[in-house]
Amino acid sequence: MANATIIDGKIFAEAVRARVKDAVTSLKNDHGLIPGLAVVLVGEDPASQVYVRNKKKQTVEAGMASFDHQLDVATSEADLLSLIEQLNNDPSVHGILVQLPLPDHIDSEKVIDAIDPKKDADGFHTINVGRLSTGKKGMVPCTPLGCLMMLKDQLGSLAGKNAVVVGRSNIVGKPMAALLLRESCTVTVAHSRTHDLAGLCRSADILVAAVGLPEMIKGDWVKPGATVIDVGINRIPKREEPKKFRLVGDVDFAAAIEIAGAITPVPGGVGPMTIACLLRNTITAACRIAEVDEPPM
Ligand code: GUN
Question: Of 119, 154, 187, which residue is a domain's last?
Fold first, then answer.
């Protein structure tokens, strides 16, 4: 019998988007401010094209301005840097997102660090990484921000909880750990070289899985009653029709649901929160740049 509460990211993200839409309306009415998000995609990676299309749709639905830059895969680094410069100087653009991964001939770090940190909607700029880890106000990466919002909604205060983050990427694992530390959790970041990962996971009141390996975290690694956030999105062959695919997370959901207190499903958990938080970040950036108070979101 399944025990855990399923944290519905679709409903949660809808609620965030509704608040974002209200915030956009009040910024328009009170300050004549229309937050604008520019998305830059280089090349034709199909997964990236889907993300970018969804981002555009949701930006427009929220009443914000959306600026799309779809560049040829052979675009030079210099041309990309000059586009970033142009967007940095464009007053109608408040958030800039360069879709990753970039083609191999482009230095991603150089491109990200060319974005004005105030407009860094992804929170990937070195300055924003430093701001997050030193507890200063900055832009926070969208996926970990979404995870944190769901955790706080589920648990209230996170202070004193043991949090284990499995995965040490710059996009999820490291910023997630910094956010949980900011909430006064006792944080451990685990990775491929960690000894006794199962035992470590069993000590976690909060378990965040962001490794990118299908169902790697087993049900009996979960502490009874723990809150489990599964960031993984992995395509694996369907059991009955191996030519077709299904999406699974980094956690063995069917087993973990028996033991956890609450858990996010895949799909429909963390995924929908990422774009909702991107919209939120764009409003935050617009308010800071225009020096107006941020409406509640
Ligand atoms: N590619 C996969 N996830 C992301 C993300 O959150 N931001 C950007 N810019 N690219 C990505």
Answer: 119
CA gap 272, 12 in Å, rounded: 8
Query: Strand pairing partners for 246?
Result: 236
**Which residue out of 40, 48, 51, 169 has the highest number of ligand 1 atoms within 8 Å of its CB and is therefore the one to mutate?**
51
Residue nearest to atom 8 of ligand 1 (CA): 99
What residues of the chain score a pLDDT lower than 50? Answer: none
pLDDT for position 2: 73
Predicted local distance difference test score (pLDDT) of residue 54? 94
Task: Judge if 103 and 159 occupy the same domain.
Answer: no
Distances in Å between the alpha carbon of 80 and those of 50, 153, 271? 21, 39, 28
Q: Is 55 a catalytic residue?
A: yes
Q: Are residues 161 and 210 in the same domain?
A: yes
37: domain CATH number? 3.40.50.10860
Domain count, the chain: 2
Site residues for ligand 1, CB cut-off 6 Å: 97-100, 122, 142-143, 171, 274
pLDDT of residue 33: 98
Q: What is the pTM of this model?
A: 0.97
- Do residues 163 and 224 both lie within one domain? yes
CA end-to-end span of the chain, whole Å? 37
**Nearest CA, atom 11, ligand 1:** 100
Q: Domain span at residue 93?
A: 31-119
The encoded tokens of residue 77 equal: 């680094």
Are 160 and 48 found together in one domain?
A: no
pLDDT at 1: 57
Do 183 and 107 share a domain, yes or no? no
- How far apart are the C-alpha atoms of 151 and 106, rounded to whole Å? 36
- Rounded to an integer, what distance in angstroms lies between the CA atom of residue 223 and that of residue 244? 33
Q: Is 72 part of the annotated catalytic residue set? A: no
Q: Are residue 146 and residue 106 in the same domain, yes or no?
A: no
Catalytic-residue membership of 122: yes
Question: Cα–Cα distance between 213 and 232 in angstroms, integer?
Answer: 7
